[in-house]
Design goal:
It is built from five helices and five strands; from the N terminus they run βααβαβαββα. It has a five-stranded parallel beta sheet with strand order 2-1-3-4-5, sandwiched between helices. About 35% of the residues lie in helices and about 15% in strands. The chain is an alpha/beta fold. It has one domain: Rossmann fold (3-Layer(aba) Sandwich).
């Protein structure tokens, strides 16, 4: 197998299935990760998963992915709207980046309508629930096969 795809989740996503299930659904992060690993295998991709509630830890993971991962799928959570530092780290990554949001951020509070990460992302998937991760992984597979 070639270099892995990093599936990275930001703050509070460890609480999926418990936190605001009417907004984020009942699927847990471990369930999302297991489905992504299985789908990745079907697509010929190795998926490695990580989650952190800490901005610096997320930046470290992105930096460590340079030269080690083929692509990054990221749900930056609340850092989407606040972290220029995370944008800068992603901008130093040479492979495809796909941003995922479980909720439709453009239907939510106005401060959520802007994502710094989107400035670097090759694609943004929002409002598809937990299925957005599978869509992102399929798109990454397409990007990698086209490039």
């Amino acid at each position: 197998m070639s270099l892995p795809v990093l599936l990275l989740n930001g703050p509070n996503l460890n609480l999926l299935g418990q936190r605001e299930p009417a907004l984020y659904g009942a699927t847990t992060l471990p369930e999302i990760e297991a489905e992504a690993v299985a789908l990745g295998r079907d697509l010929g991709l190795e998926v490695r998963c990580a989650q952190s509630n800490h901005e610096g830890a997320l930046i470290d993971l992105v930096q460590e992915a340079r030269g080690v991962a083929r692509a990054i799928i990221i749900n930056p959570g609340g850092y989407s709207h606040t972290s220029v530092a995370l944008l800068d780290a992603l901008s130093a990554f040479e492979g495809p980046v796909v941003e995922v949001h479980i909720s439709q951020i453009h239907r939510r509070e106005s401060f959520r309508h802007r994502s710094y990460v989107s400035r670097r992302a090759d694609a943004v998937i929002a409002g598809c629930g937990a299925q957005g991760y599978a869509l992102a992984l399929r798109h990454v597979a397409h990007l990698l096969s086209a490039g």
